[in-house]
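Note to self: keep these together.
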Amino acid sequence: MSDVASLLGAPLPAAFQFTVSFNAIPSGIDSSFQEVSGLEQGMDVEELREGGENRFVHQLPKGVQQKKLTLKRGVAGLTSPLVLWCKATLEGGLSIPIVPVPLLVSLLDASSLPLRSWLFSNAYPVRWDVDAFNSTKNEVALETIELAYQYAQRML
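Structure:
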């Protein structure tokens, strides 16, 4: 790995130092997560076979598709703004309007400065899961929040 870093002229970023910022939630509150996943986009394509052409199949673009963004952390208290937002969205029975918010995920360098950032537009919770409780393990109780969003944009 160090050979690759020296070829590039910079150390490779570590994946363990990152921040998550919700526009509607004050900075520093509800920004600590154990894991962030789902930063993935792909192009949907439609295969088109051309009559008489047997060497290849045309791949026609249909649109961009992204996974849901998944955040994992220790179970938070009921006063957490993120918990209140998830609770209102998922337990409101759609009688309360869903309030989408912008979300920024930043990978940090050794000085805690953003190295890469992704902005997720109009994110809102679509699943909220608490890991199984197990009396034979000494682990933190974790909750997983899955968010849908309109589109993602790499900022840095």
